[in-house]
Amino acid sequence: MKFKPKKKPSIVELFSGVGGFSLGVARAGFSLVGAIDNDSRAMAAHSCNFPGSKHWITDISNITGDDIVARFKVPTGIIGGPPCQGFSYIGKNDDLDTRNKLFVDFFRIVKECSPVFFLAENVPGILGAKYNDIREKAFSHVAEEYIMMPPMKFTASDYGAPTSRTRVFFFGYLRGGMRDLKPADFDPTDNIEFVKVKDALKGLPRKIDPDRTSINGGWMKVGISFNGSFGARLNGNIPIGVGEKDAINALKNNALVSGCLGTHHSKKVARRYSAIKPGKSDSISKSRRLEATGFCPTLRAGTGSERGSYQAVRPLHPTENRVITPREAARLQGFPDWFQFDTTIWHSFRQIGNSVSPILAEHLLSVINKALINKE
What we know:
alpha/beta; Rossmann fold; DNA Methylase, Chain A, domain 2; 2 domains; eight-stranded mixed sheet; 29% helix; 12% strand
């Protein structure tokens, strides 16, 4: 009799973006059966990295749980990071931002699909008093059926990512669907390796031609001699059915990575940048020079075309008088070198800035997976 492996517990991700949360899903032992987002550029990159998953480009507010079940069946879990710009302290912190409703839609869909658990991510600003009504309306959808833990704040650097990005997570599970969990169960393990900026950027080319702005020019040689947990996740730990084969082979066989895209700075701007000390910011561009022995601050995403197409402020390289490249940003967010993004600087930075660090996502979802009572 031929052995048939057990099916992995399944997850559908809403607001999937490029797939930082998704990579954590796969590395934590789940099967990402479906990804949904309305950003076609992000979904194109997601499809590249997750060819074994189904993709649906649509507006979350226009679909129901029945629609999701019809496409993906009832998943074990539903995860996602509803748009955070309206709640962000860095942004306009606008309680009238129409995107805020999507936070409620996430919980509406959870109720309509009845997965075993849900995990939603957002900025700490969502906990502000001005958003009490939004949170209460969202949680009312799941209050009866789900055990919901209090909001939990996590900083990615505490879990081995090179960024101090802090986000709040909302987690709940069906009664009887999981062993009881408490916030302390999600704490970092004692053997976490702290990864600083200099560690994250190790091996990447420092000298970047500013004319290197096309996809053909974005591929460069990289050093891949890393040790420890971060090194394993940077170059390998590729779940079955995940990753774009050509990119994986380019890294393994020729030590090539994409995303080493340059940015033109005038001589005047470069001179100004040369005077910026680590941890300090340029008075005009507001770009902050990264500290080699510190963590990268939160990378911002900028805005989409529907809101002016504004490029987010990018940090300055620790030693070079230029802003960081998309590949450097990906490293700092915790993405592996084989992971692919959009071919343009603007879209790739939006995708990276909007994403959950895969390293943090893997930790949280691993805790959840171990607590599931019925794995199938």
